[in-house]
Amino acid sequence: TQHRPIVLLVAALLAIPPALHAQPVSAQPETVQIVNASRGDVLRVSTPRSERVVMLYGLTCPDPQSPVGARALEYTRNQVDGKKLTMSVRYQQPKVDYVEITLENGTILNHELLRNGLAKLDSVTAADDQAYSGLQDRARVQELGLWKPADETLT
To answer: Is the Cα dihedral 67, 68, 69, 72 positive or negative?
Structure first.
C-alpha cells in the first residue's frame, strides 16, 4: 500500500552489493527535513531540491519484525521523524547515499545505534572506520541489544 514502494526500494538497495560502484565521499553537511524512518537504518529525507531515501552509513539494523529491529526503528523514529537535522553523505552508490545524521544534541544517530547494540557494523561501507568498530565492540562487551545472550534478547 502506501509503504510498499519504500519497502521495494529498500529490498532492491539491500540486494546490491555495496562494493559495486560504491565510493567514499566527504560532501558538505546539509540541513534536511526527516520525513520518516522505515527501518532503523533507512530514512526518507527532504531537501529544497528533492525527497529521497537514504541509508545510515556504517551500520545495518535488524529487520523491524525482530525485537531488536523494532527497538532500533522506534529509537530512530523518536530521534528523527519530522525534525530538521544535519546530514553528511559519507559513502555513495549509484542509487543510494549512505549518510550520518547529527541529532539536535550534537550526537550522531549512527553512533548511538551502534553504541546501544541496535545495529551491527557494516563491514563494507565502514570497513576501516575504527570509531564505528569501537562502538560496536563496546556494545558487544556490555552485552547491549543484539549482543545480549539469546535468552535475553526477547525481553
So the answer is: positive
The pLDDT score that the predictor gives to residue 41 is 98
Beta strands 96-102 and 51-56 are parallel
Tell me the three cell numbers of residue 145: 541489544
Distance CA 107, CA 101 (A): 9
Integer CA distances (angstroms), 30 to 26, 47, 49, 84, 101, in order? 12, 9, 12, 10, 10
| Residue 87: HSE in the Cβ half-sphere, 13 Å Cα cutoff | 23
- The reported pTM is 0.81
Mean per-residue pLDDT pooled into runs of 10, the chain (155 residues): 53 50 67 96 94 96 96 98 96 91 97 98 90 96 93 50
120 Cβ contact partners less than 8 Å away, ≥ 6 residues apart = 59, 60, 62, 136, 146
